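Supplementary Methods, section 5.1.

A reviewer requested that the exact input to the structure prediction be made available. We therefore reproduce it here, unchanged from the version used in the analyses.
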Amino acid sequence: MNKRIIVAKTAGFCFGVDRAINMVNSMIDEKNKVSTLGPIIHNTQVVNELKEKGVRSIDDLDDAQIDEKVVIRSHGVGPDIYNRLKDKNISYEDATCPYVSKIHKIVSKKSSSGNIVLIAGDKNHPEVIAIKGHCLAQSYVFKDCDELLELHKQHPEFRDKSLIIVAQTTFNKNLWRKCSEIAEKLYTNALIFDTICSATHSRQEEAEELSKNVDIMLVIGGRHSSNTIKLYELCRHNCLTYHIETAGELKDIDFSDARSIGITAGASTPAYLIKEVQNTMTDILVKKDEEFNFEEALEQTFKKIYTGNRVRGIITSVNKSEAIVDIGVKQTGYIPHSEISDDPSVSPTDVLKPGDELDLIVIKVNDQEGVVTLSKKKVDSMIGFEKVMEAHKEDAILEGVVTNVVKGGILVSVSGMKVFIPASQATMNRNDNLNDLLKTTVSFKILEVNEQRSRAVGSIRAVEREKRKAEQAKFWEEIEVGEKFTGEVKSITSYGAFVNLGVIDGMVHISELSWSRIKHPSEVVKVGDVLDVYVKDLDKERKRISLGFKKAEDNPWEIFKNEYKTGDIIKGKVVSIMPFGAFVQIIPGIDGLIHVSQIDTQRITNVADVLSVGQEVEALLTEIDLENKRISLSMRALIEEKDADSEADAIEEAAAIAGVTITSDEEETEQEDSEE
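The structure derived from this sequence is encoded token-by-token as follows.
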């Protein structure tokens, strides 16, 4: 009779167990003395193997030695254990399964506000004991529907209280569904969290379905393994099922009447035990099915992969520390955080999700533990290098994130590939701080590629130059006389100030900086000042722009026109002496000329003999020529006016002494008219 053998795809190590065992072996490799708080997993063979390597299993922290590290197993522990570890100053590593940690967080948060916690599971199982330890309010455990109903009977007050209900990660999925349905009817205020591990759920579902289609099921795993027992319970309802720990137990099983045999394994069952079952089954089964060869099928599940292989995998679960991948072999595929991205701040959950299919590189194979360590970033780097090569060929622009500042430049990540950009090519200004570029997205071009070493050199500056060139061309095409800008003063010369207009610098001539006379632009502006300017003149051929800065409302001639008129007496300082006269400042920016002939009533041959720079004088405003911007002043007119007034006063005084009345011509005419 030909035998048909079917091996469950999900049989063997789960993520949490795989992670815990890997952690212990890493500690051994690092020459640490190691103890585990309780058996690391519920598998006698694995525990014994670790014991041979020097790993102790302790039941209490009082048994821990000073010079060893304690490993908290995947089942987790309560807060009291963490506190004792701290108080005793014991070094430890936490291998609590992330799925279990999630339950701890749920019950801790919800019970802190007084919610009663109901836990579906085995009250004596270490995982359940740990969950209860994280409850800050009342907590109760039920193993099945009957115990849930009994709880309700004993505590009718629960009906009106807020409850949360969680499940042990390895709880029977079918039983959980029934319990959940009952709970929903009994407790309207209950929050029900499906906390059964997704891998456990898949393993149970697959095992149950497989057991419906075979004559015999073999469930491989430890006698005390909760999840293995659950698999056994699920399968035995559908066919003849055997729970075995080792291949040695196969000799007691009669396979003679079985046409088909299914095999699954608990989450704590290592790959080599499944392999041993394979070899033993091959010896026992004399006849082999031509359609399905057991050894070939199982070998396929254990198909050999090697470091450096590129494999295709599907993400089955993701957390903040790692991702678990199905790569089509018995071993568990594992991507550590460090192999997901070059950026350590990137969480696996940011870039990966269950169901994602992707290419990976094998970086380590551990057949003993059934673990394959994989790298996403190495594949990304290969893909990135291909992208870099193509960009170099086509002189295309790439975008990437600056990840590191290194000696001589920066590293930019593009599609997982790191491109070196020298400091001279990183910015337009060599004085710029490269650290300012960290974590920013930059555009760059590839200058050279080393295919043999998979390295490339890029330039941000090349892109910036092209960008600026294009912007300048557009600027010159669109700019018009009279256009207004707000720009920063970039430099100052003796003849003006250069103002940045964005992509082009324009010059404000010294004469345009002030309405009054200045000797140097620095009297008005300094580097860094922000000015409102306008385009006064353009020379597109020579690429030159003349800018205006003077404001019309500040024009001193407008101020003068509104405040002064002919005949006004002004006071001002002499600002310059000329052979033909002296210039007097009326207001800042406006000077008037006192001609040499208008300085005094006496003839003057040398102006400097009478006036000096800085001297304050009074003068009569005699003429205003706005068109030619000329103002005439006269000191002489004021002197003559004063002399005339003095003479009139003297005549009146003399007449008064002589008793004579002096009348004006108008007064005499009026008198004659009245006499007639």
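Confidence is low (pLDDT under 50) at residues 286-302. These observations are discussed further in the main text.
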